[in-house]
Specification:
Largest sheet: 7 strands, mixed
CATH class of the largest domain: Alpha Beta
Number of strands: 12
CATH architecture of the largest domain: 3-Layer(aba) Sandwich
Strand content: 5-15%
Structural class: alpha/beta
Order of helices and strands: HHEHHEHEHEHEHEEEHHHEHEEEH
Strand order of the largest sheet: 2-8-7-6-5-3-4
Distance between the termini: 42 Å
CATH superfamily of the largest domain: Type I PLP-dependent aspartate aminotransferase-like (Major domain)
Length: 367
């Protein structure tokens, strides 16, 4: 280890950096493949792309790229306020919803504080916790889902933040609304709950979150949302948090002045207005999920029932199977770092992409 590494404190040196899904161009270089022949089902992106209306907004906004973006995100703040029925003072914008998670950690945690999150939960929770010198407390999962009773039992005087992903990534599990609200009612008021709802647009009308309506009742609730999934703006990195105005004020104090670029703001405003595109994305995901899970079952593979736009399936020698998939130009996501070494996570793609994955997987299993 370089002596320069000693310049960072222990809690920084011990962080395992986040590993994103392998890019198509990188796999093409590694394997000598044609990029056009590669299928990427690793990062839970919208296979339909983005709203055509958002693309037009991006093209219109490019002419102003030499200008700094609106640091107060006026137009987007107004759009989110009207869309979700919250005041403009309740909103914090981030460079992706990951930024919201980090802003919460930076605003409210200090060394010695504790956060609580589930086993098999999103890898960013321990990252943002450790980055500020706080301690993460992992509650064992039940059937790959959150054990909220275990969360309550894990609360100590040092607990400051609780992270709850609903649906959860990478397992796709969902906490029903009544159970979640009962949990919030039992959390001490001085403990903040960050409810990560990155995949809410993929939920059915029956399962869709009601948490935004709970903000008036729970001052300690922070809701995180993103434009990276159903809205298809992953490459622009934009997300937002909804919360009590006093919490938003504190998080905005540690937020970088221009953390959301002007192109992202323009695209997000229009995306919020295009309900038809979100509906098409939901329908495509429902059909693709049925295709994928039926295909996995036909291959004799078990999977974790998912409420998101991905599914994790169990396969012997998962790391080896993943490597073979890469050799065939199919990118999925290994989840051994989530303590799921026998599983691979696959995003729901277009019909042809799902079929390609299932075909290649079948060839590998029969070899």
């Amino acid at each position: 280890m370089s002596l320069l590494s000693n310049l960072a404190p222990d809690h920084i040196r011990s962080i395992a950096p986040y590993q994103g899904g392998k890019p198509i161009a990188e796999l093409a270089r590694e394997m000598g493949l044609n990029e056009a022949d590669i299928v990427k089902l690793a990062s839970n992106e919208n296979p339909l792309g983005m709203s055509p209306k958002a693309q037009m907004a991006i093209e219109d906004a490019i002419s102003e790229i030499a200008r700094y973006p609106d640091g107060n995100t006026f137009a987007l703040r107004d759009a989110v306020s009207h869309k979700f029925g919250v005041s403009t003072q309740q909103i914090v914008f981030g460079n992706g919803s990951n930024d919201i998670l980090e802003l919460a950690a930076r605003a409210f945690l200090t060394a010695g504080d504790e956060t609580i999150y589930s086993q098999h939960a999103f890898a960013v929770y321990p990252l943002v916790t450790q980055a500020v010198g706080a301690k993460g407390v992992v509650v064992p999962a039940i059937d790959f889902g959150h054990d909220l009773a275990g969360f309550l039992a894990a609360i100590t005087p040092k607990t400051k933040l609780i992270f709850v992903a609903n649906p959860n990534n990478p397992t796709g599990t969902l906490i029903d609304k009544s159970t979640l609200k009962d949990f919030l009612q039992q959390v001490p008021k001085h403990v903040l709950v960050v409810l990560d709802e990155a995949y809410d647009e993929y939920l059915s009308a029956l399962d869709k979150s009601e948490a935004i309506t709970w903000l008036a009742e729970f001052d300690n609730l922070i809701i995180s949302r993103t434009f990276s999934k159903a809205y298809g703006l992953a490459g622009l990195r934009i997300g937002f948090g909804l919360m009590h105005p006093a919490l938003a004020d504190l998080m905005n104090r540690v937020r970088q002045p221009f953390n959301v670029n002007s192109i992202a703001q323009a695209a997000a405003v229009v995306s919020l207005q295009d309900d038809d595109f979100v509906a098409r994305s939901y329908a495509a995901n429902q059909a693709g999920m049925a295709q994928m899970t039926q295909g996995l079952t036909a291959l004799g593979l078990s999977y974790i029932p998912s409420y998101a736009n991905f599914v994790s399936f169990k396969v012997a020698n998962a790391a080896q199977v993943n490597q073979q998939l890469l050799q065939h130009g199919v990118i999925v996501r290994p989840v051994a770092n989530y303590h799921m070494p026998d599983y691979l996570r696959v995003s729901i793609g277009l019909f042809s992409e799902n079929a390609r994955l299932l075909d290649v997987l079948g060839q590998i299993l029969q070899a």
